[in-house]
């Protein structure tokens, strides 16, 4: 089985996996509007892999069946300034200008 992987130009590290190239019929319209114009990254064979782009293979296969797509979002970036202020016992709001 091949899975089509698309990226968005709106958010680095965000990928949309669909079971068929250029078939976004299962993806809700509001999500497609926020995702923007999908840019094909690759067609990914999943037969011999345990993970795909950091996504568990079985989780991805399950998502291909229902709801018919998988959206990979990048991990939340740590705010180092906020973490430092909290360590110092200060309010992170003092960093807001």
TrEMBL record:
Domain of life of the organism encoding this protein: Bacteria
Domain YcgL: from-to ranges: 1-85
InterPro entries: YcgL-like_sf, YcgL_dom
Protein name, entry field: YcgL domain-containing protein OIK42_07430
